[in-house]
Design goal:
- It is a single chain.
- The protein has 148 residues and is mostly helical.
- Helices cover 35% and strands 4% of the residues.
- Strands 1-2 form a two-stranded antiparallel ribbon.
- The radius of gyration is 22 Å and the shape is extended.
- It starts with a helix and ends in a 23-residue tail after the last helix.
- 1% of the residues are buried.
- The mean pLDDT is 84.
Length: 148
């Protein structure tokens, strides 16, 4: 009985510490502004939009129409957004890559990156400050020179 009380006491203290940690985590700023920010999910009809250029045209049309709405300060498209419950539930969109000059040995796991595609103005829309470099523009497309 003494050991049961001791284990129960340890579990109770652990649960209290975990709850305190969760409360503290809610107070940590996420690195971007969440006020006055609306997110929504759009799904294209893939039987109607069969070519990649059709999807690009659809995305441009959606952005142009959303930006034209009165009161909208900024708009952008992204394949995922921070703290997306759907992304957390289904797992990240990991893509394997290889670092030039450092091949992956047989049996080792390749490095992975969570790939998120965003349109121009994404960081300005979520008001995430740029620490270095520059933001994307509409000129950063498939025809732009590769960054190195």
């Amino acid at each position: 009985m003494i050991s049961q009380v001791a284990v129960s006491f340890v579990l109770l203290i652990s649960a209290g510490l975990m709850m305190r940690s969760f409360i503290r985590l809610q107070q940590v700023p996420p690195g971007f502004s969440t006020d006055h920010l609306l997110t929504m999910r759009l799904s294209a009809n893939f039987t109607r939009y069969t070519q990649p250029q059709q999807l690009v045209t659809l995305a441009d049309t959606v952005l142009r129409n959303v930006r034209a709405v009165s009161g909208v300060q900024s708009a952008s498209l992204a394949s995922n957004f921070p703290f997306n419950r759907g992304g957390i539930a289904s797992g990240p969109g990991n893509v394997n890559f290889e670092i030039e000059g450092r091949p992956v040995s047989r049996g080792d796991l390749a490095p992975q990156v969570d790939l998120t595609i965003v349109s121009a103005g994404y960081f300005e829309t979520i008001r995430q400050p740029m620490l270095a470099g520059r933001s994307f523009t509409d000129h950063d497309d498939a025809n732009a020179p590769a960054w190195r």
